[in-house]
Q: What sequence folds into this?
């Protein structure tokens, strides 16, 4: 009745032929303004994605140009160069070739001189390539690291896409922010190593299997490609294979109707197809290096007996892959030294990786990981995603915890990738301030990450004293991986010119190349060691005997990159 009364008082001249109000100048301007605002909103998410990835790229590039080669990098760069020049599988068989082929893309652009007449083990070949062949190691390392930087950024897009499908664009941006601000991902994404590529390929495979819940015919083969890429990068991804195949069965069963037995049969067929694609990718990676698959290792391959030896023999991969598995198994039997919370030990601790992650993960990120894992289990509409996000993470972490090498969180880089997606689900919890809390914690993570710039490798969170105190609790690639030799040379030249230098350096760099003329104090009488005693923090953590006495009788006066300590004697 009221509506009719209101309509009756309108001026007939303002009505169109259908009796509806005619558009006025004011309503036209309002419509154009609304359309303009909608257009801006459409551009805002892509702009934020670009901003987040650009800041990550800036952090990684800055890190890459300032750091000298870490311990593993010369081996990978030399192997990549050998792939390009000699098409040989002789070096570094303990790791499959795909990650090194990625590195080779950058090496090809650097066009280094490669001395094919030089013979040595893979570490010696890497040192010869960088420092004894007329190449500029700064330039060569930058180009070798660049493809890994690009790949790390692409995996950020996968993280965003995965989270957006679960929770929408805004929550996808939160996941991307966690990924882009992760100190571990920035640190290792800026190196010519294999850890980020392997973890990223696994994340991509799981995301594609998740998408197969709607279109299995399209996404299962793509998931097989990504799984094969992970297997062709690092053998530590092998425990993920049964998990990915089981998730494939689950996805296909969800997408197809019919009886339970029929869904299982169809899912098993798709999983078998994905496995075949993955195996084909591994073979393709080896064939890309040498189409004849010749394998004459530069170093001897150990003999491995028992179940592990039979397992290596049964793998449907090239001989070089199977021999690499034997090398990895033999390395697991070596009595490595570890360091955790001030304790030096031989062997491994099952809780080492969780403890290291607790130290080296921003506090806000830890809180969001825990809340996100809770959300995907507790919130009904998110439960289907729980096995895709939590099961691969749990299985891979359990396998890594069972390993014998307590060297760093780089063995668990899949954790910040998968749990960044889970963290995007926190606003779905029935908490009044869940969304605001998520935003605040993401901001806290960003600030913590920014404060450590450009020293991402030795990062630890505020509860453990920050990067300056990581050396008190962890060692090796958590803190000191040889990355600060160039910075040390600059510091000695600027602050301590002309002083006598005694150096204990843990790394693959050659100190004399950077202008550091030093002697090894472990080969001298303690009474003759005077001046500056410079020690890598990993060597400090593991110091015993004469070196420990030298350190104890010296006074710390400076530090470089939170990884090298300078003492006065």
A:
């Amino acid at each position: 009745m009221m509506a009719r009364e209101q309509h009756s008082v309108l001026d007939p001249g303002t009505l169109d032929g259908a009796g509806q109000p005619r558009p006025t100048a004011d309503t036209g301007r309002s419509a154009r303004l609304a359309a303009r605002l909608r257009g801006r909103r459409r551009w805002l998410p892509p702009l934020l994605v670009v901003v987040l990835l650009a800041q990550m790229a800036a952090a990684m590039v800055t890190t890459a140009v300032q750091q000298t080669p870490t311990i593993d990098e010369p081996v990978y760069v030399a192997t990549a160069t050998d792939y390009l020049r000699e098409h040989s599988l002789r070096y570094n068989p303990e790791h499959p070739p795909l990650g090194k082929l990625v590195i080779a893309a950058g090496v090809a652009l650097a066009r280094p001189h490669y001395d094919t007449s030089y013979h040595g083990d893979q570490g010696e070949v890497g040192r010869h390539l960088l420092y004894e062949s007329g190449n500029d190691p700064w330039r060569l390392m930058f180009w070798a690291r660049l493809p890994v930087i690009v790949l790390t950024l692409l995996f950020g897009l996968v993280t965003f896409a995965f989270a957006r499908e679960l929770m929408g664009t805004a929550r996808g941006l939160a996941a991307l922010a966690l990924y882009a601000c992760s100190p571990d991902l920035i640190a290792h994404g800026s190196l010519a190593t294999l850890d980020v590529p392997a973890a990223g390929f696994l994340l991509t495979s799981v995301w594609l299997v998740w998408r197969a819940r709607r279109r299995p015919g399209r996404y299962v083969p793509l998931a097989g490609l990504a799984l094969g890429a992970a297997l062709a990068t690092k053998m530590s991804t092998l425990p993920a294979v049964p998990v990915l195949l089981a998730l494939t069965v689950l996805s296909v069963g969800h997408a197809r109707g019919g009886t339970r037995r029929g869904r299982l049969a169809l899912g098993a067929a798709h999983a078998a197809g994905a496995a075949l694609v993955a195996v084909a990718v591994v073979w393709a990676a080896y064939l890309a290096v040498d189409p004849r698959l010749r394998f004459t290792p530069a170093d001897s391959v150990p003999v491995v007996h028992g179940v592990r030896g039979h397992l290596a023999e049964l793998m449907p991969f090239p001989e070089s892959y199977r021999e690499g598995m034997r090398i990895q198994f033999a390395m697991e039997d070596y009595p490595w030294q570890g360091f955790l919370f001030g304790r030096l030990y031989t062997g491994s601790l099952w809780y080492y990786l969780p403890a290291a992650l607790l130290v080296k993960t921003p506090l806000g990120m830890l809180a969001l990981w825990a809340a996100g894992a809770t959300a995907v289990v507790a919130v009904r509409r998110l439960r289907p995603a729980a096995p895709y996000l939590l099961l691969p993470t749990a299985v891979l972490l359990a396998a890594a915890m069972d390993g014998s090498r307590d060297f760093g969180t780089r063995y668990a880089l899949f954790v910040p990738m998968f749990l960044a997606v889970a963290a995007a689900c926190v606003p779905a919890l029935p908490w009044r301030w869940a969304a605001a809390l998520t935003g605040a914690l993401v901001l806290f993570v960003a600030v913590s990450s920014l404060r450590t710039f450009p020293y991402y490798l030795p990062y630890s969170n505020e509860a453990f004293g920050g990067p300056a105190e990581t050396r008190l609790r962890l060692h090796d690639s958590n803190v000191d991986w040889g990355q600060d030799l160039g910075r040390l040379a600059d510091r000695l030249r600027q602050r301590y010119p002309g002083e006598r230098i005694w150096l204990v350096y843990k790394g693959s760099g050659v100190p004399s190349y950077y202008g550091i003329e030093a002697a090894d104090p472990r080969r001298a009488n303690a009474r003759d060691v005077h001046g500056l005693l410079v020690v890598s923090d990993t060597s400090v953590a593991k110091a015993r005997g004469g070196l420990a006495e030298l350190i104890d009788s010296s006074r710390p006066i400076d530090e470089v990159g939170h990884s090298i300590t300078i003492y006065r004697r």
The longest strand covers residues 555-560. The CA atoms of residues 348 and 404 lie 5 Å apart.
